[in-house]
């Protein structure tokens, strides 16, 4: 991507915005508009407009054209956050040019939705009154020039200057410390029109004096002009189609819940309330309190009668959500939670007011949205796993959209995993409109503390999307399993399963303690629950059951359900012991999901211990409902278990040899035979070079000391996600010292890349190493490297396969989580610098054509056997 510099620029601008948004150039004298100070706005009655159900980038100060710069990231909109002081220039006078220019620019950009529809880039608007800032000596500093003894300043109050002038003359001044000397205090007889929290050594953990600003939310002057701004904003933009939605959240960082917050170890929040005379309750009631048109939320709803609104809240703000709902706004004000994370100690509370609890409670009556609280989660091995589970956490409450502070939705390492392709499928749905429900098996790592009247914890048990796992059913006690557990006995699994998105935390059955089952129940509001199966009613339903599990053992994993007559049926899936995460989908036409199993469950997964089964490790169970006749299968796709894509596939193979760690610390796996879902060789023999002579002009001669060779034909198979791959082939001639003594052909994905290949001639002699590089595209879930002997034997010393790009998003594939395939292009050989470049020839010989037909016949035969095996199940 040509985006590293752009990403850096976007990140820098984002940080500058967070610091205060004060670096924007000052506008020229505005064209003044005058609007009513308050009262209901007169508008035409229109249907409420909702924002497109996609992802949005928060603090998109630069108005980025995401589709042009990052088309692989999928559809993205922007949340434009505008400082209040930038638009409200005087009493009843406003300058709208900053907003209008932004909206006009966005209208000239396009976004292609997942259904192919092309729209202008959506923009959600938000007015900012108070924002976090890094500690500095310049924000609002009252006494220039500042000295090294001056205090540090936190936060920025975006109340317009003319309002602060009125506030400054109407209250008593506040004193604050000016010196780093804790025994000497300087005093200032002005408060700058803002509340100031003052900390110094002795009553602060900061270690330095600080001054933090916050608006005077509870002051009638401040409220009068804020209300004036809200109604003026509504009069101008309520019917403007360029604005997709409005976010309100008076408070620090536009997050309703606290006027300021602890930061960098400074207890600014408590000090502010103690020194300002404004307590937290007073601040909260400025936004939500009983009575018509009596608070900021009421003003926004009155000013924007046809626009979707979202109250963005966090921390103490969630205690007011039930009161907001009780106000009964029409249409309802949506809820936007500002702490979407994979797991934290505020998601669950025993009074049912945890963040996820609140969002799930109102998911059928209010539009739901989430903001990712910790966007910069990169830089450690679990970063993509954490991001993936963060998305799952947000999906539990059927959100309409999500927004992200920072750039990880456009980072290549995240985009290539496909996690956002999965997430976007479920945005904008409700439990009554979705055709698919699922459950991600896990548990919190933030258990509530012992004791106390109110306990806080992470979200208990699983992430559920209309499918739950009832507790307390005999035989269904499961155990949590993490990546660390997968690495240890009895599993002893290795890369690449350790980097899979699914490996962060999952669950397994526990046969040893008499618990071989996992039972599941669908939400009774789901449109496909309790429907007659198509096996007994022409207008009935059928289901696709999808399991994402670790493929351990050669036994079976079973889906058990009841038909309409109450008879338990079993659909078994044969495993292949690949030791990797696999995704298997089966179609069931006679299931009657009506709570007929113990505990009201609709179906269960069984490890089948009576048939010699081993414990099942499961990440996700999905059920998709269909009405009417069964769809025609996609041509060319075999209905069989398919391998779940990995975040980034890379495999190093020491052909004919054992495990080897090279000089750069890369681990070359020991050679192995191919098994479905994994990788390995097909046929051939091994040889090891003996004696003291080593291959020269290479970094790791030991890699060239072993080889796999074939008397006739053979190769390697890698079951991989569809996409583009770099393939490196390492050769050295260590047996035949002379030209044309060994000749063979190499094909990758049925495309010839080397014909009449002579290692000795190409590498430049005996015991000379050479690395040839190719690029190919996989569209069938398997990368094939084939060798055909012409003279002596075909051979290979080592292989390196690496996923380098994602395929086009236009062609469907069998497994939804796989990246879609693209048309295969002819691989191009790139030799190591200094080596001769072999010239690939596209013409196939008769023998090669016969060999290719034989390979296809064997593949067809294998597919038929798999289908017969499934029919027998």
Structural class: alpha+beta
End-to-end gap = 47 Å
Task: Give the count of structural domains.
Answer: 3
Strand content: 25-35%
- Annotated CATH topology of the largest domain: TIM Barrel
Query: What is the overall shape?
Result: globular
Name of the CATH architecture of the largest domain: Alpha-Beta Barrel
Helical content (DSSP H or I, runs of 4+)? 10-25%
**Averaged pLDDT, please?**
79
Total number of helices: 17
Poorly predicted sequence stretches spanning 5 or more consecutive residues: 1-32, 35-47, 139-148, 172-190, 630-647, 806-859
User: Would you count the extended β strands for me?
Assistant: 48
The major beta sheet can be summarized as: 8 strands, parallel, barrel
Spatial order of the strands forming the largest sheet: 2-3-8-14-15-16-18-19
In angstroms, what is the radius of gyration? 32 Å
CATH class of the largest domain: Alpha Beta
Reconstruct the topology from this structure:
Blueprint: H1 4-19, E1 33-34, E2 55-58, H2 66-69, E3 76-83, H3 84-87, E4 88-90, E5 93-94, H4 97-107, E6 110-112, E7 118-120, E8 123-128, E9 130-131, E10 152-154, E11 156-157, H5 161-168, E12 195-199, E13 210-214, H6 220-237, E14 243-248, H7 268-276, H8 280-287, H9 296-303, E15 309-313, H10 321-326, E16 334-340, E17 348-349, H11 355-361, E18 368-372, H12 383-395, E19 401-405, H13 412-415, H14 419-424, E20 436-440, E21 456-457, E22 463-465, E23 467-468, E24 479-482, H15 483-487, E25 505-508, E26 517-522, E27 541-550, E28 556-562, E29 568-574, E30 581-588, E31 603-606, E32 617-627, E33 642-643, E34 650-654, E35 660-661, E36 667-670, E37 679-682, E38 685-688, E39 706-710, E40 713-719, E41 723-732, E42 743-748, E43 751-757, H16 759-763, E44 769-778, E45 782-791, E46 794-796, E47 798-805, E48 830-831, H17 846-872
Helix pairs in contact: 6-9
């Amino acid at each position: 991507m040509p985006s590293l510099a752009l990403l850096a620029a976007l990140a820098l601008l984002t940080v500058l915005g967070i610091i205060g948004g004060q670096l924007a150039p000052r506008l020229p004298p505005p064209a003044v508009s005058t609007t009513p100070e308050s009262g209901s706005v007169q508008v035409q009655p229109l249907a409420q407009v909702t924002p497109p159900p996609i992802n949005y980038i928060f603090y998109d100060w630069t108005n980025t054209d995401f589709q042009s710069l990052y088309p692989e990231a999928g559809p993205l909109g922007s949340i434009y956050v505008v400082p209040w002081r930038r638009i409200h220039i005087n009493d009843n006078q406003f300058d709208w040019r900053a907003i209008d220019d932004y909206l006009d620019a966005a209208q000239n950009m396009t976004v292609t939705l997942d259904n192919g529809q092309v729209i202008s880039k959506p923009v959600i608007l938000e007015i900012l009154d108070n924002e976090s800032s890094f500690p500095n000596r310049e924000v609002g500093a009252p006494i220039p020039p500042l000295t090294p003894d001056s205090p540090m300043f936190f936060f920025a109050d975006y109340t317009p200057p003319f309002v602060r002038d009125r506030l400054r003359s109407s209250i008593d001044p506040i004193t604050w410390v000016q010196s780093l000397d804790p025994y000497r205090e300087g005093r200032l007889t002005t408060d700058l029109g803002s509340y100031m929290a003052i900390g110094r050594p002795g009553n602060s953990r900061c270690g330095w004096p600080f001054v933090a600003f916050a608006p005077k939310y509870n002051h009638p002057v401040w409220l009068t002009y804020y209300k004036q701004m809200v109604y003026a904003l509504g009069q101008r933009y309520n019917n403007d189609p360029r604005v997709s939605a409005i976010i309100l959240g008076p408070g620090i960082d536009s997050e309703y819940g606290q006027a300021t917050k602890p930061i960098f170890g400074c207890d600014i929040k408590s000090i502010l309330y103690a020194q300002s005379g404004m307590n937290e309750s007073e601040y909260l009631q400025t936004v939500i309190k009983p009575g018509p048109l009596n608070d900021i939320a009421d003003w926004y709803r009155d000013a924007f009668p046809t626009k979707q609104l979202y109250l963005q809240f966090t921390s103490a703000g969630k205690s007011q959500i039930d009161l907001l709902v009780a106000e009964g706004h029409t249409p309802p004000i949506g809820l936007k939670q500002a702490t979407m994370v994979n797991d934290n100690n505020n998601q669950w509370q025993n009074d049912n007011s945890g963040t996820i609890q609140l969002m799930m409670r109102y998911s059928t009556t209010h539009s739901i949205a989430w903001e990712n609280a910790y966007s910069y989660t990169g830089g450690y091995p679990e970063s993509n796993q954490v991001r993936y589970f963060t998305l799952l956490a947000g999906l539990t409450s059927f959100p309409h959209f999500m927004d992200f502070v920072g750039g990880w939705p456009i980072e290549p390492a995240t985009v290539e995993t496909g996690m956002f392709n999965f997430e976007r499928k479920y945005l904008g749905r409700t439990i009554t409109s979705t055709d698919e429900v699922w459950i991600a098996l896990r548990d919190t790592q933030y258990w509530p503390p012992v004791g106390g009247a109110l306990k806080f914890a992470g979200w208990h048990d699983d992430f559920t999307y209309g499918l739950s796992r009832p507790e307390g059913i005999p035989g269904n006690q499961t155990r949590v399993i993490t990546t660390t557990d997968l690495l240890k006995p009895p599993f002893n699994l290795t890369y690449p399963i350790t980097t899979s998105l699914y490996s962060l935390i999952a669950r397994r059955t526990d046969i040893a303690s008499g618990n071989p089952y996992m039972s599941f129940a669908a939400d009774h509001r789901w449109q496909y629950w309790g429907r007659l199966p198509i096996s007994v009613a022409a207008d009935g339903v059928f289901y696709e059951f999808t399991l994402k599990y670790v493929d351990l053992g050669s036994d079976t994993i079973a889906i058990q359900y009841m038909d309409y007559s109450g008879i338990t049926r079993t659909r078994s899936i044969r495993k292949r012991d690949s030791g990797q995460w696999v995704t298997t989908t089966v179609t069931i036409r006679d299931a009657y999901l009506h709570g007929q199993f113990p505990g009201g469950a609709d179906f269960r997964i069984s490890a089948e211990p009576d048939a010699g089964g081993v414990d099942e490790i499961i990440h996700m169970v999905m059920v998709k409902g269909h009405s009417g006749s069964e769809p025609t299968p996609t041509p060319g796709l075999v209905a069989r278990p398919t391998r779940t894509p990995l975040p980034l596939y890379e495999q190093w193979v020491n052909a004919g040899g054992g495990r080897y760690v090279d000089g750069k610390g890369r681990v070359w796996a020991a050679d192995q035979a191919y098994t479905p879902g994994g990788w390995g060789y097909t046929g051939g023999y091994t040889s090891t070079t003996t004696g003291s002579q080593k291959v020269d002009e290479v970094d790791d001669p030991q890699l060239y000391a072993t080889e796999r060779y074939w008397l006739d034909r053979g190769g390697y198979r890698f079951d991989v996600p569809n996409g583009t791959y770099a393939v490196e082939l390492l050769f050295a001639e260590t047996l035949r010292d002379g030209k044309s003594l060994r000749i063979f052909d190499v094909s990758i994905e049925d495309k010839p890349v080397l014909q009449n290949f002579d290692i000795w001639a190409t590498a430049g002699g005996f015991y000379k190493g050479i690395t040839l590089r190719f690029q190919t595209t996989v569209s069938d879930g398997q990368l094939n490297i084939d060798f055909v002997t012409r003279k002596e034997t075909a051979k290979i010393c080592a292989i390196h396969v690496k996923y380098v790009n994602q395929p086009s998003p236009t062609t469907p594939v069998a497994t939804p989580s796989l990246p879609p395939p693209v048309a295969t292009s002819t691989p191009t050989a790139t030799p190591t610098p200094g080596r001769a470049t072999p010239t690939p020839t596209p013409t196939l010989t008769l023998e090669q054509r016969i060999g290719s037909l034989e390979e296809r016949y064997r593949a067809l035969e294998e597919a038929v056997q798999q289908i017969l095996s499934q029919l027998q199940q």
